[in-house]
Structures are given as C-alpha cells and as structure tokens.
Amino acid sequence: MAGCLVILFLAFLSISGNAQVSIDCGASETYTDENSLVWIGDDGFFKNSESAVVRSNNTVSHVMSTLRVFTSLKKNCYTIRADKGSLVLVRASFFYGNYDKKSSPPSFLLLLDGNYWSTVKTTLDEPGIYEVMYVVKSDTISICLAQTQPNQLPFISALEFRKLDSTIYAIVDPNYALFVRSRTAFGANLTVRFPDDVYDRIWVPGRNVSGRVPVASDAKLINVTTAPDNPPRKVLQNAITNSSSSDSITLNPSFHDHGDSVYMNLNLSSLDLSGPLPDFSSMDALVTIDLHNNSLTGPIPDFLGALANLVDLNLADNSFSGLIPPSISSNKKLKLV
Ligand SMILES: *[C@@H]1O[C@H](CO)[C@@H](O)[C@H](O)[C@H]1NC(C)=O
Ligand SMILES: *[C@@H]1O[C@H](CO)[C@@H](O)[C@H](O)[C@H]1NC(C)=O
Ligand SMILES: *[C@@H]1O[C@H](CO)[C@@H](O)[C@H](O)[C@H]1NC(C)=O
Ligand SMILES: *[C@@H]1O[C@H](CO)[C@@H](O)[C@H](O)[C@H]1NC(C)=O
Ligand SMILES: *[C@@H]1O[C@H](CO)[C@@H](O)[C@H](O)[C@H]1NC(C)=O
Ligand SMILES: *[C@@H]1O[C@H](CO)[C@@H](O)[C@H](O)[C@H]1NC(C)=O
Ligand SMILES: *[C@@H]1O[C@H](CO)[C@@H](O)[C@H](O)[C@H]1NC(C)=O
Questions:
Q1: N or C: which end of the chain has fewer CB within 10 A?
Q2: Can you give the residue ranges of the Malectin-like domain (predicted)?
C-alpha cells in the first residue's frame, strides 16, 4: 500500500451482515434505485479527480451515466472496511461514453488489495464490468486504478461490494479468487440481480443463443435452498432447448488465460429422465454429475469412470441394470452415490 497516495476510507460503511456498499462514482447524491439498492456518491473524496457525465447515444443506467476520472497521480484507491475472512463480491464498472469528447477510450490497470486484477480496456460505447469473489485477507478491501500510459486517464463508473454467504462456492480453495467471466440466465428476457439474487450477482439474459428455443418452466415452486451456490429461482425458471431432442446444445464459454482451472457441474436430478444415458464422454471438464431421482435405465456407462476431473457422481434412485463398471469402482478419487 506504500504507493497508494490517496485513500478514500469509508470507515462508516462496512460490509458486515447483509450490508452492501454501492458507490456511484462521479455522483454527489445518495439515492435508491429501482432494485432497492442504495447508491452513494463519491464527490469530495478525491482531490485529484473530476466527475464527468457521459455523452453516449446509448441509454445507460443512472449509475453508468456519471464517472470519476483521476487527473493526476499514477495510482488512486478506494478502500472499504470489511470483515477479515468473509467471502465478498467486488464489482467495478467502466463506461467511457465519450465523456471527454475525445473519442479516445483509455486503458489502465485495476488492482485488488495491491495485486494485479486486470487491465481495463474501455471502448467508446460499451460498458465493461469486472467482478471477483474472494475471501478478504485483512480488514479492508482496496481497489486501485493505475495509469500506465500518458494521456490515458483512469476513470471508474461504479464500484460495488457485496457480502456472500461463506458456504457458497465452497468447491473453490479459499486462497484463490474467483474471477467472473460470464454468468448467464439462459432463456431469460431480463437481467436478473438483487432482490431476485440475494447476493446481487448479475445474470445476463442468454436468450438469443443461435438456433436455440427459449422455454419457461411451468413448475409452481422451484425450491433452490438445497442447490449449491444458491442460484436464484428466476434463473432456474427459464432455459434454452432445441426443437429436436437428438440435437445438441453447444456453449462456448471463453476463458482469457490458457490453463485456467474450470469447475463444471452437471445437475439433471429429479427431472423425470428416462432411457439409457447418452455418451457424453467428451465433457471431460465435469467435476460433479448429479442424475439422482430419475428413471434412467440400461447399464451404467463405462466412460463415467474415465472422466478425468470427475469427483462426485450421484446415480442414486434410478433403474440402471447390471454391475458398476470397474472404471468407476476402482477410481479412488471418485465418490459414487
Ligand atoms: C451519437 O450520434 C451522433 C449523430 O448520430 C454521432 O455524430 C455521434 O458520433 C454519436 N456519438 C457516439 C458517442 O457514438
Ligand atoms: C420473454 O419475451 C417474449 C417475447 O416478448 C415472451 O413471449 C415471453 O413470454 C417472455 N418470457 C418470459 C419468461 O418473460
Ligand atoms: C439474435 O441474434 C442474431 C444474430 O446473432 C440477430 O440477427 C437477431 O436480430 C437477434 N434477435 C434478437 C431477438 O435479438
Ligand atoms: C425447501 O427445501 C428445504 C430442504 O429440503 C426445506 O427445509 C424447505 O422447507 C423447502 N422450502 C419450501 C418453500 O418448500
Ligand atoms: C442438484 O440439484 C438438486 C436440486 O434440484 C440439489 O438438491 C442437489 O444438491 C444438486 N446436486 C449437486 C451435486 O449440486
Ligand atoms: C438444433 O441443434 C442443431 C445442432 O445440433 C442446430 O444446428 C440447429 O440449428 C438447432 N435447431 C433448433 C431449432 O434449435
Ligand atoms: C424426484 O423427482 C420428482 C420429479 O421427477 C419430484 O416430484 C420428487 O419430489 C423428487 N423426489 C425427491 C426425493 O427429490
């Protein structure tokens, strides 16, 4: 923190309990938005900064319409008090919107607790959102913006802190941060966030996935309390499908860095599925498979035991025939239910 010259210390705001901190950068007033989130402005906290209003033809939310630009000093930081050891979500948003009339969207560095988080590359008219979930290592969280190139002034539009339940994302080693690449509500028409998602995770609608048909569940009640990572009901209510059951759905998640670890969970439990299991041996990134409480028949396929990353396999309450293949029974790291 030695190089951190200006600190906004919101000592009176802390993210404990269910409290949340939402900063509308460049704004001066405090207000409550349509999702019941309370936003505070950051006027008067930084000397070497200016607030600005975007001049975009795109309609943007109230939060994105103002920004704070740092006009001097190489590095500027927002510091928030937090509970050490708690799991938090931090979301930083950047919308250039040609606020300076130069049509020159800048690039700069984003730092989390003094470590490199990302290089922010802004565009003329598209908001950029950077999000991380991690276990706080001290009693503060610091988010810094650092200028790296002449005339490319760092700016920020919004900064949000949310406390998460420490039981979610338990599969992830608490010493690692979880950077969000995408979070999609397939088949949904609108963005889902607070209050539908109690943690205010933002789920982007994935409706227009080429060739896919959006479908809605007619279930009266989807009980999400037992599902891991607490997905909001609104997200599970919609889906995408294909007009023919023999067709596949291909999703292409993009990962920035080669060698990223991936945790993939296939949960098709309690869906009244029948017949034999198809060959999905190419889905070798799967870590958990839950097919319990269906009416699946036929032999338990051999390939399940050969999925390189599989740790949890739940086939309980089905009508499989035959023996458990040796690939599964002799697989020491695989837990079969
Ligand atoms: C907004 O629209 C005007 C007129 O159509 C255009 O000249 C201008 O470049 C647009 N601004 C941005 C930021 O796209
Ligand atoms: C989404 O929008 C389409 C078209 O406007 C509508 O037919 C459909 O019912 C909507 N779905 C949901 C889940 O709101
Ligand atoms: C869906 O995406 C295609 C191209 O990807 C586009 O041409 C079409 O207009 C989109 N439809 C809707 C309803 O957004
Ligand atoms: C949801 O499931 C949990 C655990 O099985 C149960 O305790 C709870 O009562 C259920 N909630 C509703 C609304 O059915
Ligand atoms: C799969 O989803 C059901 C709820 O539909 C949940 O009870 C179960 O814990 C989930 N399994 C896994 C491995 O996440
Ligand atoms: C169904 O899936 C196939 C690929 O398996 C795709 O080519 C086709 O466009 C899809 N059709 C519909 C109507 O979703
Ligand atoms: C099993 O799945 C059916 C739907 O297929 C559901 O109605 C039932 O509640 C599920 N049973 C358990 C124990 O989850």
A1: C
A2: 23-267
Measuring from atom 14 of ligand 5, which residue has the nearest CA? 228
Q: For 168-222, write each residue's pLDDT tens digit.
A: 988 788 998 999 888 999 889 999 999 999 999 999 998 777 777 888 877 777 7
Token pair recorded at residue 293: 């409480």
DSSP secondary structure string for all residues of 9-68: EEEEEEE-TT-EEEEETT--S-EE-TTS-EEEE-TTS-SSEEEEE---SS---TGGGEEE
User: Are the beta carbons of 158 and 64 closer than 8 angstroms?
Assistant: yes
> CB under 8 Å to 263, separation ≥6 — which residues?
171, 172, 287
Strand 87-94 and strand 128-135: pairing?
A: antiparallel
* Ligand located closest to 314 CA: 5
* 288 pocket-lining for ligand 5 (C-beta < 6 Å): yes
Distance between CA atoms of residues 94 and 160, nearest Å: 12
Give the pTM. Answer: 0.81
On the question of pLDDT at 19 being above 70, the answer is: no
Amino acid at 173: D
Nearest to 155 by CA among 53, 79, 80: 53
Q: How far apart are CA 133 and CA 91, in angstroms?
A: 9
The CA distance from 269 to 182, in Å, is: 24
CA of 184 to the centre of ligand 6 (A): 20
pLDDT band at 74 (very low <50, low <70, confident <90, very high): confident
CA-CA distance, 3 to 24, in Å (whole number)? 25
220 CA distance to ligand 4 middle (Å): 14
Q: Tokens standing for 94?
A: 């950047």
- Of 204, 207, 208, 210, the one to substitute when testing ligand 3's pocket (max ligand atoms within 8 A of C-beta) is 208
